[in-house]
Write a structure and sequence with these properties.
Layout lengths: L1 H27 L32 H6 L14 H14 L1 H4 L23 H5 L2 H10 L15 H14 L4
Helix pairs in contact: 3-7, 6-7
Length: 172
């Protein structure tokens, strides 16, 4: 019994000494442990004044979202070959999974949807105003499967995808 009591006292002493060393380290050392390090305090300095012209007065995502869809126009001609080529690449990144390589809604993901994604070569899609197509790509279709891609795809790439879709023409 005396042996067990001796072992318990020795272990307790070692634990208490270790706790004391850690506390001394925290209190006396300049760096301490992680919770003792200096924290980032972003609002301690005044917010710098923005330079004139740094806030856009024209264009921007908010105007695309709030303006009338009929007034939205691409920043370049949709028939521009470089825009169509860029749109084809962007389509492969962002759209092919649902709309498919045949543009008919039979993509790897899209074929399991009910209803299927739209056929991009249909008369309905090809006849849509470009502003409406841009709005649907950007902010989704209410009660539809088209996700809002405004936070994922740049404005230029969204217009390029539209240029590519328009270049496909209507399905026969």
């Amino acid at each position: 019994m005396v042996r067990i009591l001796s072992v318990v006292l020795i272990v307790s002493s070692v634990v208490l000494i270790a706790i004391g060393v850690v506390n001394i380290y925290d209190d006396q050392m300049s760096v301490g442990r992680m919770w003792k390090t200096p924290a980032i305090k972003p609002h301690e300095k005044p917010i710098p004044v923005m330079a004139p012209g740094s806030v856009p007065l024209a264009g921007g995502e908010a105007l695309y979202q709030t303006g009338p869809a009929g007034a939205l126009e691409p920043p370049f001609p949709l028939s521009d070959p470089s825009a169509i080529t860029g749109g084809k690449l962007a389509y492969r990144y962002y759209c092919v999974h649902c709309h498919g390589p045949g543009f008919d809604g039979y993509g790897t993901v899209g074929q399991s949807f009910a209803p299927r994604p739209r056929d991009l070569r249909s008369a309905q899609v090809q006849a849509m105003p470009v502003g409406r197509v841009f709005r649907e790509i950007s902010y989704g279709i209410p009660d539809g499967r088209q996700p809002a891609l405004a936070t994922t795809v740049s404005v230029q790439d969204r217009w390029r995808v539209i240029a590519f879709i328009r270049s496909l023409g209507q399905r026969d």
